[in-house]
Write a structure and sequence with these properties.
Oligomer: single chain
Largest sheet: 4 strands, mixed
Radius of gyration: 17 Å
Number of domains: 2
Number of helices: 9
Structural class: alpha+beta
Distance between the termini: 26 Å
Strand content: 5-15%
Helix content: 55-70%
Order of helices and strands: EHEHEEHHHHHHH
Number of strands: 4
Strand order of the largest sheet: 2-1-3-4
Length: 203
């Protein structure tokens, strides 16, 4: 039995989306980041970093949401995992790019503009984050001007990994980047994405 540790209100939403795409049955441990459950010896034995998500796939333990999604798509021979080595490399490239260029940056921007109570928001953090977000969206826009999807001719794990990580971008003004905006909403309109989003938003 596949077991997923991690709340939909964490980066585990990316894996919940992938599990939905694959139609897999799994046991879900709804652990929030830094929850007491993540500090137990049992959980630290799975992930010494104490972070979610983590999967236990019949004894194979793996953390990091991007790696988990790539593994699951490839293991289950999903069409979402590119068969062409070049497109496979592009899926890896964009997944790694997002974690470096947009993941923490967009979180910081949204937290310090809308999510945090006003007294806890830091304007300088938001401004610095937004500068990086805009530069990265410029890159994404340019890529999507050349192709409809990031890693081949169809929606793939590369698109899923990046779009899932950009959940917070659904709530900000991205009209400056029409192709990226359309791509993001196209990804999140998929049935599995809608189900993962509903779990995150408690709907």
């Amino acid at each position: 039995m596949l077991r997923l540790y991690g709340s939909a209100r964490s980066r585990a939403v990316r894996t919940l989306w992938m599990l939905g795409e694959l139609g897999l049955t799994y046991d879900h441990k709804d652990y929030l980041p830094r929850a007491p459950e993540t500090r137990t010896p049992e959980f630290r034995a799975l992930n010494p970093n104490g972070r979610v998500p983590v999967i236990d796939d019949d004894g194979f333990v793996l953390s990091e949401s991007m790696a988990i999604n790539l593994y699951l798509a490839k293991k289950h021979k999903s069409p979402l995992y590119p068969s062409d080595p070049r497109n496979e490399a592009l899926a890896l490239q964009w997944s790694l790019w997002e974690t470096d260029r947009l993941d923490r940056q967009i979180v910081n921007y949204v937290r310090h503009t809308t999510e945090f109570p006003e007294a806890e928001r830091k304007k300088e953090v938001a401004e610095a984050a937004w500068k990086e977000v805009t530069a990265s969206f410029d890159v994404l826009e340019a890529a999507l001007a050349k192709a409809e999807w990031l890693a081949g001719p169809a929606f793939s794990v590369g698109d899923l990994n990046v779009a899932a990580a950009l959940y917070r971008a659904l709530a900000i003004d991205t009209k400056k980047w029409p192709r990226a905006q359309a791509w993001l909403h196209r990804c999140w309109e998929r049935p599995a994405a809608k189900r993962a989003r509903a779990m995150r938003e408690g709907k």
